[in-house]
Amino acid sequence: MVDRNASSLLGIPIDRKSLSEITEDSLQAVSRAQSQKVFACANPHSLVVAQHDPAFHSALTQANLVVADGVGASWMARFVGVEIGPRITGTDYFRAILGALQERGGGRVFFFGSSQNVLDLIGMRFRTEYPSLTLCGTLSPPYGTWSAEENHRMVQTINEARPDVLWVGMTAPKQEKWVEANRQQLNARVIGSIGAVFDFYAGTYSRAPQWICYIGLEWAYRFMLEPRRMWERNFVSAPKFVWLVLKRHILERKKS
């Protein structure tokens, strides 16, 4: 486990730090005052999947910054007395890092993942909103799985662009496992697995209004937009997550 200020929820270390503290840690990595930082999000669905996916579990455990992205994770941690930091979404971290780099006057950013259409839309918006930053590259990986040779080529393309920050936008757990498998070869100082943020930022997928996010009902909004995709997360993984947390953090604690 990466040594840091974190608490374990279902065996996954989740940071206790605020968004501003996590942002500062990341900026210190960009300036090389700290080692490379790998950012990942933990929500009820991902925490459940990690219980039976050893590679995903390892990826989350080895990440330097793991935040509770999901109101269910925050609620259940509080209920069983596990002290974790505030809810921080991938969008929160994305905006905080880019905003801080913009204020500091520069930084090199690379987007890896999603489709070329999404990446093109991201590029247009990025150049307008962050004029002090350099979009040093975008890359859409092949659909499905790819060979070791293709992976080596993509890692080389990313490294040749010399990004300070590498945003990775694939579905979980694919993105986190890819980062863990390749982080030693990647020269980026900050690597963030932020999934759907690519679509949110490109405008190809609508994020819930801020007031819905604030009251913790973003999951319901996303379910209405994509019921087939979100069904398992909301009605299979969520109850399983509640049971697993109660079992490990309440029932098993009483037995020991």
CATH class: Alpha Beta
Indicate the overall shape: globular
Structural class: alpha/beta
Separation, N- and C-terminal Cα atoms: 23 Å
Write the SSE topology.
Blueprint: E1 6-9, E2 12-15, H1 19-30, E3 37-42, H2 44-50, H3 54-62, E4 65-68, H4 71-79, H5 90-104, E5 108-113, H6 116-129, E6 134-139, H7 148-160, E7 165-169, H8 174-182, E8 190-193, H9 197-202, H10 210-214, H11 218-225, H12 227-255
Parallel strand pairs: 3-4, 3-8, 5-6, 5-7, 7-8
Antiparallel strand pairs: 1-2
Brief account:
It is built from twelve helices and eight strands.
Q: What do these coordinates show?
A:
This protein is of the alpha/beta class and 256 residues long. The protein has one domain: Rossmann fold, CATH 3.40.50. It is built from twelve helices and eight strands. A six-stranded parallel beta sheet has the order 4-3-8-7-5-6, with helices on both faces. Strands 1-2 form a two-stranded antiparallel sheet.
